[in-house]
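Quick one: C-alpha cells for this chain, please?
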Amino acid sequence: MSRVWRQLKAVANPFALAFGPIFQKEVRTAGRRRATYILRSLCCLGLLLLLIGVFLVRRAETGVQGAVASLQSMQQMAPAMTLAVGWFFLAVMTVVPPILAGGSLCDERRARTLDVLMTTPMTAGQIVCGKLTSRIVQIIVLALLVAPGLLAVRIFGGLSAEVIGAVTALAISTAVLGAALAVLFSMRQKRATLAAFFALLTLLLLQGAPSVIEGMRFFHARDLFSDAAFRSNILATCSPATMLIIHNAVSAGRDLPHLILETRAASQPPGGGPTIPAAVLDLGPTWAINAVYNLSLAALITLYTTVILRRAMRATSSREALLGATARAPAQKSAEPKESAEPESAGERYARRDRTVGGNPVLWREVRQPTFGSRLIFRIVLVLAVLALGALYALAGLGNPDLHAVLAYIGIAAVMLQAVFLTSGPFAGEREARTWDVLLTTTLSPRQILTGKLLGTLRSFWFIPAVVITDWVIASAFGYIHPFGVLLIALIMIAPGILLASTGLLFSLRFRRPVTAGALNVAVAACLWGFVWFLPLALPAIVRAILYLPGVLGLVNVDLTVDRFLDNHYLNFIDAIFALNPFALAHATALPCLHEATPGGIAKAPFESRLITHELTLDQALAVVAACAAFYLFAAAATVALARWKFKAWSGRSS
C-alpha cells in the first residue's frame, strides 16, 4: 500500500517527477563535460558562418544603392537570413537531440551503475522523465544560442515576431520528440550510437510516414476519380514540410497559413438560389499544429518508455535479465557420450576444433561478427528485400528510371547515416566489455588493431549498398541502365562511407564516450557537404565588400575586377565542391545512365551530364567520380595514419 501511495504522490507532483535527483545529477554532470561546450561552440560557429555568408551574398547582390533602395534591400535581407537560420536550426534540432539522449541508459550500463540505480526508491517515471528533462535542458540551451541570431535580423525590418516564434516552436518540438525516442531506444541498445541511429530513423519515419501514405492514396485515387485531391493538411505532421510552408509564406510576404478543416461541403439549395458556402473550422496556425503533434507523440513515447521500464523492473529479479538482457539458460545435463568402436585421439579432437585465426586476430574477430544478430534474422531480411524489389518491379516497372534513382538516393542516405552513427564506437565495445586493456597488452601493432576495427566497421553496413547495386545490375542486364552506371553508383556510395568510417574510428580512439565521437562525426559530414559551400559563395562577396570600402571605390572597376576573379579556375573550384556531395554527384553523373522504357522499346538517350558550370562526357564523368573517390580514400588513409600516430598517446599504451 505504501508503494502505491508513493507512486500516486510522484504522479501528483510533476515537479518532482521531472526535476528529481536524476535531473539534478545529469545537469551537473553535463556541465562538467568538455564535449558539451564543444557541441555548443560548433553550433555557434555554424550559425555565425551562416549569417555572415547570407549577409555577404545579399550585400553583393544589391551593390551600391541610394538610401531608399538600401533600406528596401535591408528589409528583404531579414526574411532571407531568418529562413536560412530557421533551416539550420531545424537541422540541428533534428540530428543533435538523438545524439545527446542516446546515452541516457547506455552510459549507466557502461559505467556499471544501472543496477544500483534500480535499487533506489525512485520510480520508473522519475528515472525516465529525469533523463528526458535533463536532455531537454541541453536542447533549450542550444535553442537560446540560435534565438539571438533570429532576433538580431529583425533590426533590418520586414519580419514579424510570429515567424521567430513559429521557427523556434517547430525546432524545439521536433527536438523533444527526437530526445524521447532516443531515451526509448537507449533502454534496449547497448551502445549510445545505436540508440541515436534508431531514434533518428524513427523520427524521420514519424515525420514522413503520414504524408507518404496520403501521397500514395492520392496517386491511386487519381487513377479512379478525376476529382481526387491531395489533402495538404496532412503536411502539418511533418516538420520539414511545415518549415517549407513557412518559407513560402515569408518569401511571398503573406501571413503564416492556418490549418483549415472543412466540416461541410458547399451545396446548392433544392429550390435554387445562391450556393451555400462550405463550413470550415480554423484549427490554428500550421506550425502550432505541428508543435502539438510532436509534443503529443513525445508524451506518448515517454509514457510507453515508463511502462516498459516498470514492467522490466517488476518482471525480473535477476540482474542479468534487467532491461531485456538475456538470462542464462538453466544448465542442462550433458548427454552421455556414445561409445565408438575406435576412440578419438587427442590430436583428432584438436584438429576438429581448430580454427585458423591468422596474423591479425582483431580482423578475424571483427569480420565474423553477425550483421543481423543471427542467420535467421538475416534470412528474413533478405527475403523481405527480395519481395520488396519484386513488388516495386511489378508496380513501377523495371524500366522506370525514377525507381532506380530513388533507390540510389535512399542507398546513399542510408550509407551516410550508418557511416556517421554506427562507426563512432568501434572501441566503445572493447571498453564496455573490459577487454580494451587486455587488447593493449597483446603484441598487436596499432596498424593491425586499427585495420581490423575499420574493416569490421565497414562490413557492418554492406547490406543496403548491396541491394542498390543488385537493383542496378539487374536493370543493366535488361538494358535499362548503362553498364558504367553500376560502377559510378558503387563508387559514389562506398567512398564517402569509408572516409566517415575512418573519422569515426579516429574520434572513437580519442574520446571515450561514443556520443562525443558521433557528434564530431556529424560535424565532419556537415562541414564536408554543407559549410564548405560558403567558400565559393562568400569569396566573391568578400572581394566586392573590400572593393566597396571608402577609398577603394572609384580607384578600381569593381565589376571588371570581380569578373576577372571569376575565371575558369574559380568555376572549376565550384564544380569540385559540387562533386564532393554524393547526392549531387549521383544526380550529375550516375542518373544520366538511366534509360526509359517506351512502348516501342528502350529509349536510350545520349549521355548528358552537367555539373554547375561544365558539361561532361561519359569518360569525363568516370574521371570525375574516380577523382572524388580517390580524394575520399586519400583522406581516409590520412585519417587512419593520424590515428596510428596518436595511438599510444590516446589509448594509454605504454609501448
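Residues 381-530+581-651 form one domain.
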